[in-house]
Heme chaperone HemW
Amino acid sequence: MASRLPLGDPAPHDGLLPPSARVDADTDFGVYLHVPFCRVRCGYCDFNTYTSTELRGARQDQYADTLLDEVALARDVLADAGPARPARTVFFGGGTPTLLPAGDLARMLDGVRDAFGVHDDAEITVEANPDTVTAEVVDRLAVAGVTRMSVGMQSAVPHVLAALDRTHDRENVGTAVELARGAGLEVSVDLIYGAPGETLDDWRESVETALSHRPDHISAYALIVEEGTKLHRQIARGDVVAPDDDLQADMYELADDAFQAAGLEWYEVSNWSTSVGKRSRHNLAYWRGTDWWGFGPGAHSHVAGVRWWNVKHPAAYAQRLASGSSPAAGRETLDDGQRALERVLLQTRIREGMPTAELAAAARPAVAGLVADGLVDGRAAIGGRVVLTRRGRLLADAVVHALTEG
């Protein structure tokens, strides 16, 4: 199960935003659709996901209809908060969205389209386990309007996949990529590095294999040991060794060099793409602090400075909606200080960085020291922006600390 939900204020049963929260017609709006089902729980996973034995009264075959009830509620809430905005991005995440029939995913997308509208050039992404991708699935998704598939490769090395409890057939990654590309979809590949027992040579093999599939986009994330996961318990017992920070840094540099040599440029600390047009616009919307509504159990949302999160379990989520109530478990309205902190946290992660002028006055002198330490690009700083160097990407938390503690 995922970690516990954050603390916050009670959320109203009708889901309405506070009167002070007014939608800005010029702020982009995105949609996240959470599908919380997995065949097997990976040992490192802290996401809000459930295997069939953990559903306790929730039904996978009714999930699309339940989520569409929240879409209907959101339509009314947003209509009350200001002008209508079509979605510029839609992202099916999980869990494993492709465990649902492609027809269910298409109905969910149609529901979003009917409730809010979807821009003609919208980016619409579906995450997929390689074992669940077939020609029929990708063709149905493409017809429904999906434009992009994110394939969960994680590693090309059997013992690393085993350490992560990943059960997919590694040969199916290439098949999934080719099927998606054949249906006209853009393709992203997800990788994880720093698993127990993974060597630098193992990681090199995974990077080279991922590049051999010629994806438009690659996400590569350092393994983080989250409290409450199977992996956390294994490390606490001494069964496996915790990830090594220095080795993970070496792995990051290896990947960055290989991706650049293959024509992919970094645009966010953990993401690379073949061009500006192939970047994940949905994730960029998070990093730029725009508005989105997250549908599904445990999903988080942010609209007009108000952030909220849904109840975690699919059964509780369905019960709330069946009774006519919002599934929100809690919420908070961000004050100016919180917004300023989040801007630093998020904008410094992307290639464009953030304007120095947006930093608190007391924090601006720290930029010179960060340049001297090789963490911030000096030329960009002269131009009035805080942009991370590669060393800065590896120490992004230290940069944020320096820029928010002034």
User: Anything to note?
Assistant: The longest helix spans residues 63-81. The longest strand covers residues 118-128. DSSP finds 15 helices and 14 strands in the chain. The chain has two domains: 29-287, 335-406.
